[in-house]
Specification:
This protein is α/β, with parallel strands linked by helices. The chain has helices spanning 42-48, 98-101, 142-145, 151-161, 179-189, 203-209, 220-225, 243-248, 270-276, 288-301, 315-324; strands at residues 4-8, 17-21, 30-40, 65-72, 84-87, 90-92, 112-113, 125-129, 134-135, 169-173, 192-197, 213-216, 230-235, 250-258, 279-282, 307-311, 330-334. It starts with a strand and ends with a strand.
Length: 337
């Protein structure tokens, strides 16, 4: 196709407007995906507002794409036109550095994000290197599965890769776009799951998603009563909290793990780490092989994002809803060009 229709912002926080662009020739190792649905992630909001200082305008957001392969270059392997695939945060990596050769394509220093210096999925079509377009199992609903390729893999990867055990006592801090998926994953993993939330109205929903216990994250007495109990605490919020308090919840050898983009430096007491031989860590998304594991795990256990859907033509309403913090729990845009 000569031009691609999309929705783009021309400056930080400016409304998204119709935008058409010429993508140029399809690369020999690229696929072009006809977009059916695209999740709206908080990272899209951060990029739209240039919160991270990385945004290039005009910005076409969107990195939780579900669609079908519309065209494939001659070097593409294992994909065919008409096949339904998903695309997440990354669209390309170098394939030759040590990280890539070890399978850590997502840690490649030259990895290209789908919406950083590239046009993303709020569009008729989007392109990527073929290894990042992963086939979507038929059992997973296309209209709601886009968030698995960003939010889902973000919370699943550390569970798999840090050695969380089914017998572990785990906590999830923040029950939103990431946290609601983390509760489902950890419950299906076999853990005893505690949800920590600052919103009392989320108690019933958190239990329905998989939490055995729900604790107010501002309830000092409740937090004190749970000191030393947790093997793994997953931080999905981007808010700055009293991290010494959260470190105190860990049992010996426990891990406080960050997937939320907390922008302020962490104040961590070293003696709090040393005394219990505890760990503080963080991770971005996950390996391509881990994305495949997540899709299989989600199929087996019925894990699915809870979404609110908007036609893509109402993208600015969707952004306002996400910014309000009232979404339960992810937004998906349906392409309606």
């Amino acid at each position: 196709m000569k031009t691609i229709k999309s929705w783009a912002a021309n400056g930080a926080g400016q409304p998204l407007r119709p935008f058409s662009y010429d993508p140029g020739p399809l690369g020999p190792d690229e696929v072009e995906i006809a977009v059916e649905h695209c999740g709206l992630c908080h990272s899209d909001l951060s990029m739209w507002e240039n919160e991270w200082g990385r945004t290039v305008y005009p910005l076409v957001p969107g990195h939780e794409v579900i669609g079908t392969v519309a065209a494939a270059g001659p070097e593409v392997r294992g994909l065919h036109e008409g096949q339904r695939v998903g695309l997440g945060w990354f669209a390309r990596s170098c394939l030759r550095c040590s990280a890539c050769l070890n399978g850590d394509y997502h840690l490649c220093a030259d990895a290209q994000a789908t919406i950083v210096g590239r046009h993303g999925g709020f569009a008729e079509r989007v392109r990527c290197h073929w290894i990042w377009a992963q086939p979507l199992p038929e059992a997973l609903a296309p209209a709601t599965s886009g968030p698995l390729f960003c939010g889902g893999i973000t919370v699943f990867a550390p569970v798999l890769e840090t050695g969380v055990r089914p017998v572990d006592r785990v906590g999830v801090v923040g029950i939103g776009g990431l946290g609601h998926l983390a509760l489902q994953v950890l419950r299906a993993w076999g853990c005893e799951v505690t949800a920590f939330t600052s919103h009392p109205d989320k108690d019933e929903a958190a239990r329905a998603l998989g939490a055995h216990h729900v604790v107010g994250s501002r309830d000092e007495a409740a937090l004190n009563a749970r000191a030393g109990q947790f093997d793994f605490v997953l931080v999905t919020t981007s808010a700055s909290l009293d991290w010494a308090r959260w470190l105190s919840l860990l049992a010996p050898h426990g891990r406080l793990h960050f997937v939320g983009a907390v922008l302020e430096p962490l104040a961590i007491p070293v003696f709090g780490l040393i005394g219990g031989q505890k760990q503080v860590s963080g991770s971005p998304l996950g390996r391509i092989s881990t994305i495949r594991d997540l899709l299989q795990f989600s199929t087996r256990h019925g894990i699915a994002p809870q979404v609110e859907r908007f036609p893509m033509s109402r993208v600015n309403e969707a952004l306002a809803a996400l910014r309000s913090g009232e979404v339960r729990y992810r937004i998906v845009l349906d392409a309606d060009f």
